[in-house]
Structures are given as C-alpha cells and as structure tokens.
Design brief:
The protein is α+β, with helices and mostly antiparallel strands. It is built from 2 helices and 7 strands.
Amino acid sequence: MAFYQFQRTQKIKASVDEVWDFISSPANLKEVTPDYMGFDITSKETPDKMYQGLIISYKVSPLLGIKTTWVTEISQVKDKEYFVDEQRVGPYKLWHHQHIIVPINGGVLMKDIVSYVPPFGFLGVIANKLIIRNKLNEIFNFRTKAIEKRFGVYI
C-alpha cells in the first residue's frame, strides 16, 4: 500500500475570524474548486458552519469528466484553529485532509496536510506519479488564487 502526503501553506491577508468564517462554511467549497471539476454538494441540507460528525456528499469530476460520488466526514474541529475532513466514500482508499490556520503578523497562515492512499495498489503508485500529484497541485494552485481574490495578496 502506497501512502502519500501533500502539504501546502498560504499566507492570507485577513483575520483569523474572517478566514475561519470562510473555510468553515461548506457553501464556500465550490468557490475554491476549479469549475472543470463540476463540484456540487448533494447533501440535502448543509449547515452554515461545519461541526464534528458532519457528513457532506458531493458529485465531482476529478478526471476525464467522469462524475463520482465523494462523501466526507468532518471528523475533528477546533474552532478557529483547525478541522479535518476524511473521505468515507470516494475514489481513494484513504483521504485525510487537515485544514490548519495560525495567526501571523498581518494575517493568517493556512496549512493543508492531505494524507492519502490511491486505489488500485501498484497502479495507484503509477497514477500518483503521472496524474494525482499533479492534479492536487493544480487544485491547490486554483484555491490559492481564489483565496487571494477574496482576501487580497499577502505581502
């Protein structure tokens, strides 16, 4: 079983309260996801703010326009510090995504740590080298720009 971690940090020109209000609202997920992924929340009711135990279902097209169901659980929340989403149904054998925010001079440092295991054993190792790692970079590059558009560029 191949296990990988992907990490990304971003400095944000905003207060902890502003960043937390944005990232802890499931309604804002679409804004930070590239359009080509066809991201749609399919949960019947989604609260304004996430909470521990919240299950959210989506339809998403991560590859070749093929729609797939993705179900995540918000497994941990510490208000204005971090939350963790974990895949319960979806394309990965394991998906564990930590969203961490830390106050810094003039803003917030947001850190993401994604731990994942691709499907299909050794084929997943090849897929990670050829596709998955690049796709994660692409998605997080988009998210960086979306956050900068919303909050401004941290200097």
